[in-house]
Design goal:
By secondary structure, the chain is an alpha+beta fold. It has two domains: about 130 residues, Macroglobulin (MG2) domain (Immunoglobulin-like); about 325 residues, no CATH class. The protein is about 15% helix and about 30% strand. The protein contains ten helices and 27 strands. It has a nine-stranded mixed sheet, with helices on both faces. The chain has a five-stranded mixed sheet with strand order 2-8-7-4-5. A four-stranded mixed sheet has the order 12-18-17-15. Strand 10 and strand 11 form a beta hairpin. The two termini are about 35 Å apart.
């Protein structure tokens, strides 16, 4: 979605006065205080709070005195004026979006908001928005499912301030694409409300790929619409509070959860080892390692080896310091890796789905799928990025994981999508141990303490509303693992 999208704030009051902001922290517990940092030249502003679930629900509002502060660089704490809002104790855990707009003082800030959008897609914008997560209060336990919101990845692609973890936006910026790059979590953007690096999604151009509205919102809408209750947290919560997952049976991650700190990975692995289940309805998962710095307000990633020329594809190289696979392959946890599959970043993809096997498994219940059938090709289910396990074919032609890449020996491949190799097909691949050209996305699961399921494609949540069989598999996975 381009910056030309109508500004709800401007249209509501008829004046073109910008109001932008960001949360002091990406999450807050119900009953505690959230600090909003807001910059505007308007005398006053209004902030409307929405919870995104099966539908978008208006939860409350506040107003404050407007003060202007200038933007800063992508690696700075922007230090905008702070305004405190007490989160009501009764607010349920979830993902919340704040709409900012000028306020003329003519009506109560708590008056009903009459323009509530019907979906998170309609709520999305590149300005005048901010996102935060309300985590659950203890000791209440209404669910045994915890949903992880990938704030680190949102900010990795957020280009507010002129850059992202991919370097400066300006192609003439003399800063080299080498060494360690830092991005602040205290700036506009990070899932919503800021410009985003990346190309449009030709299969769903309504929202940019690296946003909450594109990946997480449709999954959460389906999840809660199906009557499944979950608590929510961010990856920063998992980084800072290792015990946050203790009372849950299932951890869910969706879409594009690419950037993980070592502590997040350790804590999620420990969750699995003590019997917790994990469902990864996405791909390119845990590809880059980040370091959380500055008291949890920034993330750093050492992704560029010294001397890398501008514009080089660092994934094609060895020696990237924070590639998980080069030091501790992520597929020891996830079962799969991006380096065994690939990405298709620009333009429409040819139809590609998973050829399924092992369809007597319970996750295929009520799908009417049989071995050799193809899942999701008509909706381009495989892509835009996907993960795979190294595999061979047994005497019956079934795909069997070799384990040579770190994938657990009992990883059961339930679907395979061989990626086209010809350059004209538009697929890109990363360096890996095995130089053989074959690349394939593989979805499946293994058990080691708990069970880990991976859908192995970022577009699983995009296709979820479109394909009844994808919905059935998703529901079966959640039922079995929760």
């Amino acid at each position: 979605m381009s910056d030309a999208q109508p500004d709800v704030a401007t249209e509501s009051v008829g004046v073109a006065v910008a109001v932008d902001g960001y949360p002091g922290s990406p999450s807050v517990r119900a009953g505690e205080t959230l600090r909003l940092h807001v910059s505007t030249r308007a005398e006053q502003f209004r902030a409307d709070f929405f919870r995104c679930g099966a539908s978008v629900r208006h939860m409350g509002a506040m107003h404050g005195t407007g003060r202007y502060a200038p933007p800063r660089g992508q690696d700075d704490d922007w230090g905008w004026p702070g305004h405190d809002f007490d989160i009501p104790e009764e607010w349920p855990s979830g993902v919340y979006v704040v709409v900012l707009r000028p306020y003329d003082g003519g009506s109560s800030a708590e008056s009903p908001y009459t323009d509530t959008p019907p979906s998170a897609e309609e709520l999305d914008a590149r300005h005048s928005r901010l996102l935060f997560v309300v985590t659950a209060r203890e000791p209440a336990r209404a669910t045994n499912i915890l949903y992880k919101v990938p704030v680190f990845t949102y900010h990795a692609y957020n280009i507010s301030g002129g850059g992202s973890l991919y370097g400066p936006v300006d192609p003439d910026d003399p800063a080299p694409h080498t060494g360690t790059v830092t991005v602040s979590l205290r700036r506009p953007g990070g899932g919503i409300g800021g410009p985003v690096k990346g190309r449009p999604d030709p299969h769903d151009p309504r929202t940019p790929r690296q946003t909450f509205a594109h990946w997480d919102a449709p999954f959460i809408a389906w999840l809660e619409g199906a009557g499944v209750t979950a608590d929510y947290c961010t990856d920063l919560d998992l980084h800072e509070s290792p015990g946050i997952s203790d009372r849950y049976q299932l951890l869910i991650s969706v879409g594009h959860d690419e950037y993980w700190s070592a502590r997040v990975r350790d804590n999620v692995t420990a969750f699995r080892d003590r019997g917790g289940n994990i469902a990864l309805f996405g791909a390119n998962t845990c590809w880059w390692r980040v370091e959380v710095s500055d008291g949890g307000t920034a993330v750093r990633c050492a992704k560029y080896p010294p001397g890398v020329p501008r514009g080089a594809d660092v994934d094609q190289m060895r020696g990237a310091p924070d590639h998980w696979w080069e030091t501790e392959p992520e597929n020891t946890l996830t079962g799969v890796s991006y380096r065994n599959a690939g990405g298709h970043w620009e333009g429409p993809r040819a139809p590609l789905g998973f050829t399924v096997q092992g369809t007597d498994h319970k996750i295929f219940a009520d799908t009417d799928l049989h071995d050799g059938d193809v899942l999701g090709a008509e909706h381009r289910l495989v892509g835009y990025e996907c993960d795979g396990a190294a595999y061979i074919r047994d005497g019956l032609g079934r795909a069997v994981a070799t384990g040579k890449d770190g994938t657990p020996a009992d990883f059961a491949i339930l679907g395979v999508a061989d990626l086209p190799q010809e350059p004209a097909a538009g697929w890109h691949s990363a360096a890996r141990e095995d130089p053989a050209p074959e690349r394939a996305a593989t979805f499946g699961l293994y058990t080691q303490g708990g069970t880990v399921f991976t859908a192995a494609t970022t577009d699983w949540p995009r296709v979820l509303p479109l394909d009844a069989r994808v919905r059935a598999i998703t529901g079966n996975v959640i039922t079995l693992l929760s």
